[in-house]
Fold this protein.
Amino acid sequence: MMPMRCQSCFRRGLTLIEVVTMVLVLAIAVPPTLEIMMSNSASRANVINTARASMLASNVLEGILADVTSSDESLGFDALENANAYLTTPTTGFYSRMSLATQSYESLGLSYSVTISVLVGADGLVSETESENVFRTITVRVSYPSADGAAYTLPVALMVSSL
């Protein structure tokens, strides 16, 4: 005699209630999950852009520091006295010489500017005693976009001297 099999053992599809339940679960779970993923993506993009801005500022400051310590007669600490000429002279100015190194950052929407202070004392302020004013403050300001379209500026400064 053959054993009897139940009809439910052969059922392979889903019932309408199971399908509706799955659709409801997905409709409730997917939108918040996507929102979290997009928020995390924007946060990661901001962190990456901040790191890029920091690397650009570091590269620019290293270039200026190399110029300050250079033995080339057109460079050195004294070249900073005329900041405009040091930075913007065609082909030999700092901006021209750095253009190849900064080009990849600029293609990503980053830009930078350099300001060079007058001679200052060790505290960063102009001293009444002129012999104490032996430093210059070099400030690099890097502007970069955020993931939401806002613009950020990262200022980085260092003091240099001929000593």
